[in-house]
Design goal:
single chain, alpha/beta, Rossmann fold, seven-stranded parallel beta sheet, 12 helices, globular
Length: 292
């Protein structure tokens, strides 16, 4: 279910259209409900949602709403408030209806966003939907370097975890993963609400820092991620400019690197979040093979 930018003039009117369409087609009767905040151009990556739909045999509803025509980096600078405002409008109206439904029959509700979509989606996670009838969780991929929750968690990660794969406390609420599944943490169980960040260390959209002009970033000085070259060296100003330029071509790389997220890397995250019925490890591998 999707409302384009021209569906209505006002953000709240577009959100209301989405809700009415959800009611009409029975979206709240599905098992899994995803509120997906698109990228700046209005794109929702099929690599993120197709595996979920197969995993749950189509018993899903995915809703989104366009807020811009601009590429994400440009939208972030030209209209930085639009993505959060749009995400808040849609999440609040969907959550407002969902929370009134019987808890034992309503679908599990998750948030999702890629790139600038993750920035908007993070900002939509307010005390209203975290404390009072919280959403079940969120999957944010390719978070931008400006994402507030991502920044806070990365900054306050456990001291023995690298910046590109933070460990947050015992991992009860928030977990990070990369090309290799890192969501299974020994001795830790999930809390009621689950947050998963899927990120690649080679993604400049995530790991750009203006401060790298005068000091090396932690993802360079820490243990290197497998997709970051050992030959990379930090130089004052030059490295920052290099990564800034890399942001312009972050999507022009092979799948599974940079800002191009592979469908198979979403699968473990969706399994951890949604807990599909009677799911086995072999099912995960079979589904990954389908999307390779």
């Amino acid at each position: 279910i999707y409302a384009g930018l021209n569906s209505a003039e006002d953000i709240r009117d577009r959100a209301a259209l989405v809700l009415e369409e959800m009611k009409r087609v029975g979206a709240f009767e599905r098992s899994i409900l995803i509120v997906a905040t698109p990228t700046g151009t209005g794109w929702i990556d099929s690599a993120a949602v197709d595996p979920l739909e197969v995993m749950h045999r189509g018993d899903t509803a995915i809703v989104g709403m366009q807020y811009s025509y601009l590429m994400s980096p440009l939208a972030l600078y030209v209209e930085p408030d639009v993505a959060p405002e749009s995400a808040k409008a849609l999440v609040n109206i969907v959550h407002g209806h969902w929370r009134q439904l019987p808890a034992d029959t309503r679908p599990k509700l998750f948030l999702h966003g890629l790139s600038l979509g993750s920035y908007g989606s993070e900002n939509a996670l307010s005390p209203l939907n975290m404390i009072d009838n919280p959403v079940n969780g969120a999957l944010w991929s390719g978070p931008t370097f400006g994402n507030p929750i991502w920044q806070d968690l990365t900054r306050n990660r456990n001291a023995d975890s690298p910046a590109w794969l933070p460990l947050i406390g015992d991992g009860r609420t928030a977990r990070f993963t990369t090309q290799e599944n890192a969501l299974n943490i020994a001795g830790s169980s999930w809390s009621q609400m689950r947050l998963v960040f899927l990120q690649y260390a080679s993604d400049p959209i995530t790991f750009f820092e203006i401060t790298s002009a005068f000091r090396p970033s932690a993802w360079i000085t820490d243990e290197r991620a497998p997709d970051v070259s050992e030959n990379l060296r930090w130089y004052p100003l030059i490295t920052m400019l290099q990564i800034a330029v890399d942001m312009l071509i972050a999507a022009e790389v092979p799948e599974g690197f940079g800002h191009v997220f592979a469908a198979e890397h979403y699968i473990n995250a969706w399994v951890a979040l949604t807990e599909p019925d009677n799911w086995q490890e072999g099912d995960t591998e079979q589904l990954k093979e389908m999307f390779r």
